[in-house]
Amino acid sequence: MAPRTLSLGKMALLVLFSLVLTLALGMGLPEGLSFFARLFGFTESSVTYGIVLLYLVYVLYVAVPALPRGTVPVEGKHVLITGCDTGFGFALAKHLHAIGFTVFAGCLLKDKGGDGATELKSMQSDRMKVLQLNVTSDEEVAQAVEFVKKNLKEPERGLWGVVNNAGVSGFGDIEFASLDNYKELADVNLWGTVRVTKAFLPLIRRAKGRVVNIASMLGRMAVPSRSCYSISKYGVEAFSDCLRQEMYRWGVKVAVIEPSNFVAATGILTRERVEIQADKLWKEASEIVQEDYGKDYFAHQVVLMKSFLNSGLKDMSLVLNDITDALSSKFPYTRYNPSDTYWWVRLILTTHLPAAIADWIYIH
Ligand SMILES: NC(=O)c1ccc[n+]([C@@H]2O[C@H](COP(=O)([O-])OP(=O)(O)OC[C@H]3O[C@@H](n4cnc5c(N)ncnc54)[C@H](OP(=O)(O)O)[C@@H]3O)[C@@H](O)[C@H]2O)c1
Ligand SMILES: *[C@@H]1O[C@H](CO)[C@@H](O)[C@H](O)[C@H]1NC(C)=O
Q1: What confidence tier does 313 reach under pLDDT thresholds 50, 70, 90?
Q2: pLDDT-based confidence at 4, cuts 50/70/90?
Q3: Is 113 within 8 Å of 121 (Cβ atoms)?
Q4: Distance CA 141, CA 200 (A)
């Protein structure tokens, strides 16, 4: 076995980096502050106050809610949202409409007379346009582009925003989940997002508009039994990062929304869906997996998943406000974390601590 060694060059770089950082923070900071104190005629002792003040500014920066950054005018701006049948998409369509946007509400079940599409249509507003849109279908996405082009007041000025919201969820340990489980979730969550974004980008670039992708906190960190979902959402994050970088030169801004647990507020994972999935997972697992893990372990996982269903935030307004900010702020953020405190802390710790320590805190 090859010994675990660090190349000499890499080691030297790491040591050098630590030295520079130590010198900069340990000596550079007081030195620099002394310099400014002398420059402006303050006493040397004010340097201590300076350090305390810097620290205070930092703490305030972390603690104070986002400063207002100005908004773009909303009138005459059109936004397409996918997955408007239920949940965030349905609520967002109404919310954006209420604040003055013209909404193209893509619904999976419009042609089948789904409740969400029917209710949005019954608003009978010029600014609420409901269309059939299954994000896994090339044909329906192409038809959606045509529909949007035809219904834009000034097509040459493009489409202001796309919100990739359509999504499906699931659970199940890796040894229970079939490859088809992985593919089904990725088809909607990841390839659906890629397909819709690519189709609408020419219109979005015309408007120097916005792409808003609904990923998840599970697009930044993984938890046991959610690998199918997490993979698809990590993919959305990677896609959004590339897109953001490629779009700078076009003036298009890309934002990712990473909600924590809002399961209780939406239709993404109902008790019924969990039960259907659980049945399927157990039946399709190999004999050896059933035997090794055991029915008790599996039943416990299902109970855990069901308890998760009742644990989330019931008010979606955090999510709706963040999506609205991403669409209408002059300076939208790259990432938004609408979340409760528990998951916010867990996300920060998991993405900043060494993995072994984060696992020790949360998983063992
Ligand atoms: N709720 C949460 O806790 C949470 C947390 C983080 C991220 N998210 C993300 O938020 C987004 C919205 O989900 P939600 O929580 O509002 O759940 P939801 O109520 O289930 O909404 C998702 C909608 O997308 C639709 N959809 C499914 N497959 C589609 C397809 N192929 N084409 C078009 N639409 C399709 C669903 O229709 P059907 O119901 O008929 O399948 C549903 O109406 C998803 O991307 C989800 O991953 C949710
Ligand atoms: C969405 O489109 C896919 C691929 O074309 C198809 O397999 C699926 O049945 C469609 N879903 C609905 C609800 O129409």
Answers
A1: very high
A2: low
A3: no
A4: 9
- Give tens-digit pLDDT for 22-42: 998 888 888 888 888 888 888
Q: Is the CB of 134 under 6 A from ligand 2?
A: yes
Report how far apart the first and last C-alpha atoms of the chain are (Å, whole number).
29
Give the whole-angstrom CA distance, residue 222 versus residue 230.
6
pLDDT-based confidence at residue 5 (cuts at 50, 70, 90): low
Instruction: Supply 43's token pair.
Output: 């006493």
Give pLDDT tens digits for 110-149: 999 999 999 999 999 999 999 999 999 999 999 999 999 9
Centre of ligand 2 to C-alpha 135, Å, is 8
Instruction: Tell me which ligand sits closest to the C-alpha of residue 188.
Output: 1
- Of the candidates 134, 109, 135, the one whose C-alpha atom is nearest the C-alpha of residue 121 is 109
Distance CA 148, CA 80 (A): 8
Pocket of ligand 2 contains residue 240 by CB under 6 Å: no
Taking the C-alpha atoms of residue 220 and residue 234, their distance in angstroms, rounded to an integer, is 6
170 lines ligand 1 (CB under 6 A): no
Q: Where are the beta strands (DSSP E) in 251-330?
A: 253-257
Encoding tokens for residue 212?
A: 């808003």
**Tokens standing for 315?**
């008010």
* pLDDT over threshold 90, residue 333: yes
Ligand 1, atom nearest to 257 Cα: 7
Residue owning tokens 């082009």: 149
Alpha carbon distance 168, 265 (integer Å) = 15
Say how many Å lie between the CA of residue 142 and the centre of ligand 2.
15
55 is catalytic: no
The structure's pTM equals 0.91
Domain borders along the chain are 8-66, 78-362
Q: Quick check: 3 pLDDT over 60?
A: no
What is the CATH superfamily name and number for domain 78-362? NAD(P)-binding Rossmann-like Domain (3.40.50.720)
